[in-house]
Amino acid sequence: MTRTPLLPLDWEGGRVWIKAECLQRGGSFKLRGAINRLLQLSEAERERGVVAFSSGNHAQGVALAARSLGIAATIVMPADAPAVKRDATLAAGAEIVAYDRETESREAIGARLAAEKGAVLVPSFDDVDVIEGQGSVGVEIRAQLGMAADKVLVPCGGGGLSAGIALALPEAEIVTVEPEGWDDMARSLEAGEPVPVREPAPPTRCDALQTKLVSPLTLGALAEAHARGLWVSEPEIERAIAFAARHLRIVAEPGGAVALAALLAGKAGPVSERTVVVVSGGNVDPALYAGILAAQAADARRGG
Amino acid sequence: MTRTPLLPLDWEGGRVWIKAECLQRGGSFKLRGAINRLLQLSEAERERGVVAFSSGNHAQGVALAARSLGIAATIVMPADAPAVKRDATLAAGAEIVAYDRETESREAIGARLAAEKGAVLVPSFDDVDVIEGQGSVGVEIRAQLGMAADKVLVPCGGGGLSAGIALALPEAEIVTVEPEGWDDMARSLEAGEPVPVREPAPPTRCDALQTKLVSPLTLGALAEAHARGLWVSEPEIERAIAFAARHLRIVAEPGGAVALAALLAGKAGPVSERTVVVVSGGNVDPALYAGILAAQAADARRGG
């Protein structure tokens, strides 16, 4: 596991901090939760292997964690997952079972495989050990900041990372950020109970954040912490991706850039030099990434 | 100053380490040498300000270091310097004096400005304090690796970074890497004395490495360390830029990517988990960067 850097960003005459979790092994924070979960397995469970379903980042996290512990991993992945994520999962030594996102249930397939092999299913967020593992991001933030954070902006899919950070940094205001139309965590926090995404949910580049229902576990931890939720638009996300490349020299994937997008769009409210923005992943299809950067560079040229 | 991360890279069944100095404040290692030099100034010298000439990264390093110490900075910069570097230098509060790279001597302009203002000239590499400051990269590598490095591949312009690392890590083999046709350090190390670039030098994207003559100071330190030099082609550099984005999630500028390019091209010789590759900077024009990534993504698609 890499202790990812906390990078300073000059902002509005002051400074905020970027937790660059895209620099984690496997390109996202997911390795943290996966390792913590796998470390809880008994010897017998290790031998039967693990199963996970994931659009990509959790897949890589589980595959890398399993390889490092000598455990076999099978990953259930949508057939339209980014090739960059599929290839990396294979490279980490996992077996992939593809499914159709529109017609099949990944939960059912994952459960069937787990039953067939006697393998343990590693959930991507609805699990105490996974949430605690993601919380190591918060532990590092506290150590690297050298003082209490006042606000942490976190990209949110199922809420594992946000909940983990909320548990690790109880003094901080936690702000979850989701793509437009996928703000089920924001609405669940407002409602005080899990509220699913409104169907049909709009298309989004944020393949890592396409969860349609949060879990009582992550929602509970975030509600307890009085977290609140924001959403950002696709153009705001694309601007954040280009900003991250130019001003931070890091590659952010769409889902990883949403919290930075909220900051740049002025949606984050007051910030300070104790504010942290998490960039949670950087696994983006190379052609898509080049296209976003080219369009943003052309926009900037026209604008100035 | 940021303690930049040492990122693991799976390589040929093992692992090497990437020192991601593109994540430094100002987007390159140059802040390190500039701060160390400015910290040597007397109170009277601080008041008269500093002058530097630079194609960009040293400019940003001096501007940021000067601002952090409350010192006025004037930067002599080629008129065709990347806008991304010029803008960042202005944003850091420095004054810029532009010159024509083909017809004017930046050394003469810098010296004249220094004389007029009584300001101290901060050299980009030919200075003991600057070299020692860059050497802090080596000090960090030693601490982060937790053991002695066996080989360090370093992008080389004037040789300040390479020489600083050689002084900090006397146990390591130092390999300087330069763009094709700009391998004056490699040839100087072979000759045992400064040998200029052969004119006309070919065009290169590596604006940060276009020095035509190394200094006796940097050459001396590297020769003492038995360093050797390599060169890489422009296509090799572009492949390394795309590789860095995809597999390391960092933005490397052309000059910052040459050492990684040497590794990828198989020019680095035997490597181990004690080998470190320095990515020295990430300040690249956004449109150029997008273009390189798009071409590389199209190549990869055709190739596989």
What is the topology?
The structure is a homodimer of 304-residue chains.
Chain A: E1 6-11, E2 14-20, H1 30-38, H2 43-48, E3 50-53, H3 57-69, E4 73-78, H4 83-91, E5 95-99, H5 106-117, E6 120-121, H6 128-134, H7 136-145, E7 151-155, H8 160-168, E8 173-179, H9 184-191, H10 216-224, E9 228-232, H11 234-248, H12 258-264, E10 275-279, H13 286-303
Parallel strand pairs in A: 2-10, 3-4, 3-6, 4-5, 7-8, 7-10, 8-9
Antiparallel strand pairs in A: 1-2
Average pLDDT of chain A, rounded to a whole number, is 95
Structural class of chain A: alpha/beta
Q: Which overall shape of chain A is indicated by the principal axes computed on the Cα atoms? A: globular
Number of strands of chain A: 10
- Percent helix of chain A, as a range, is 40-55%
Largest sheet of chain A: 6 strands, mixed
Query: How do the helices and strands follow one another from N- to C-terminus of chain A?
Result: EEHHEHEHEHEHHEHEHHEHHEH
